[in-house]
Amino acid sequence: MESQWSGGRSRPPKGVALAAVPMASDNSTGAKRVPEKSESVAADGPSTDLKTQTSSPGLGEDAALALLKRPDLPAEALEALAKNGSVLKHRKVKLALIEHPKTPRHVSLPLVRQLYTFDLMQVALTPVVPADVKRAADEALLNRLETITPGELLTLAHRGSGRIAEALLLDENAHVAQGALQNPRLSEPSIVRALMRPEASAEWVEAVCRHPQWSLRREVRIALLRNEKTPAALAVEFARRLPPPLLREVLHSSKLPASVRNPLLMQLRAREGK
Fold first, then answer.
1. What are the residue ranges spanned by the domains of the chain?
2. What is the pTM of this model?
3. Mapping DSSP to helix (H, G, I), strand (E, B) and coil, where does residue 211 land?
4. Is the model's pLDDT at 230 over the cut of 70?
5. 3-state SS string for 118-157
């Protein structure tokens, strides 16, 4: 009996049953084969599984953050996570959810308003965050400037986005204004717009005049020559650097005092005569 069964051709002994194994067909030979383990997974299994994980009430902060590091996390899983109150109460999870490139706008934009000051600054500066979400973070910060502490304002002035730096250029706190002037994200148009505002103080205007970077820019010099608070000696220096036709146009609309503007016009005529 044993020799017949081990030969492989005889039928199994009576009373011995074999487990039923579904067989797959080999496309090349037509022979039957045992399917691979991965073939038994449902087509929507991974996506459904991720959605189940992100919506689980037992999901912890660390597990949620690990999931949010996955760039392939689908939108439906991110939406489920946004509705999971057990993990959304954690600041880091909320921030990571907003910064995920696949988070839908109707999820991320309302969450922006719930962030703390420096988290808003981080969102506005993160490269992968969509432009409209960055703008929302900046808007939320701008709306809070009057309630933010001086220490936080100083940090924002030094490290915030260009929009935040521009908003703090003329802050009544001189340290904050100077910090904004040193912000590496500050742009030339922001400086020019600030110089055109009547509330720009004489101290701040002079700080721009002496700034090693901004004082060299032509558009900034033109704005300074139009500003009534620019010191006379520095106005003379800037005027010498402009071509006569441009200088004449600038002085024509300048708010410099007559005691400064008239000598500049005389020097301009002398240069044109030569």
1. 61-145, 148-186, 188-274
2. 0.76
3. coil
4. yes
5. HHHHHHHHCCCCCHHHHHHHHHHHHHHHHHCCHHHHHHHH
